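To whoever is covering the structure queue this week,

Two jobs came back overnight. Logging them here so there's a record in the thread.

Job A:
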Amino acid sequence: MGSCFCVKGDAEDKAIIGNSEEFKCEGNAFFREGKYEDAIAKYSKAIKINSSVSVYFSNRGLCYYKLKKYSNSFDDGYAAYKLDKENFKGIFLCIKSKVAQSLNFSSESLNQLNESIVFFQYLETLPVSVLTNSLTEYIKNLKTKILELKPIIEKNHRKNIMENYYKPILPKNIYEKVNKFMVKSSKPMESLMCPLTLEFFDNPVVISSGNTYENKMIENLIQLNKLQDPLNRKSFSQTAIYYNKSVKSAIQWYTHNYPEIASMSDNKDLDF
């Protein structure tokens, strides 16, 4: 009887694991379709059945991050990390969530900088008759200084976040590795990210107005019949959209040489 009981217990355990994995796979399918709420529901069912699997939490946390629910994504990332100290995606999810919460317009220094940029952009729209040549040059120089200052403040802000939130809790070797890539200047990365999705380009295309975007975002604009560049508001032609091979090559080089950065891209973070 004892052996029969064990066999029954093993069968039940396998059924439980199978059910939770089935929900995870269904969640992954919804994630690929961009249906993050549906994916969250599936991952939650998997967690309810088996709450000891780290990747269920990190996958669900990524969905929350996509929905900009950074408090939830942080909690799931931390839960994933506690369950599996080798789940670096859980660590990165925690950090990205905390940085996203902190690098917003509630930060006084960044808020002031962005207000200044908006103000200078407004000044540039004033009629020529209002501005003398010297005043125009003065405004241009001030705006340049503001734009140069912004990444420095953002970099220092990221550094403070790392030191305040993560240095006390992360093992030294992990902290140093993560800090190296979180605190560095973001300019190289920004050029490899779509300005609309804020993610690494997957299929970059350049449009006739001169800017490069993720192809799916341009397709969305065309479907909505909004043929204006989101950044410079110039009209673009839907027959003059070209694959940006140079940007794609740069991304491949960058992610090959800096795999830690690549692992933080939202496009590749799911565990299957």
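Job B:
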Amino acid sequence: MSHNNPYTHATNVYGNNAKTAVVDQRTLEGQLLMKAAQKLDVLSKRLATGEVVPPMEVEEALSYNRKLWTVFSSEAGEDAHALPQEIKNNIATLAVFVFKRTIAVLANPVPEKIAALIEINRNIASGLLKNKDSKAADAAGEKAEKNTAPQSPESKQDSGATDVQT
């Protein structure tokens, strides 16, 4: 009977797709940073209108961002991590800033203090997502160049092409 159960079928389809879905690490990090920036932006806009945002809601947006940066700084601190030391140091420095700014925003939630967190997240996300896209574009460009590169006379003879001179 389980073969007719739509829930079992949906679970199996989801499970099969989940196994084959691969997300690039850079893309995932970029998307998470954009999500954090969006949460902070919504909070900032609410505060900018003069709305009294409950402390629990302020904490929720800041907590998401802080947890994300905790993961980034922990990963960058690993000796086995492949990033160059300079980038690891930059991540650590940004994480310290994010943690300090988070405390400042919790103490006094104003849009001006949140703006820096939003900007950092968006800029890094943009770099992560753009680099992925530019690498794919570079690879496609290299492939196109190989296909359209002029052939030497020897390769034309090998391919059966004739050289017509006027």
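Note for Job B: The longest helix spans residues 111-148.

Please reply-all if you pick these up so we don't duplicate work.
Q.
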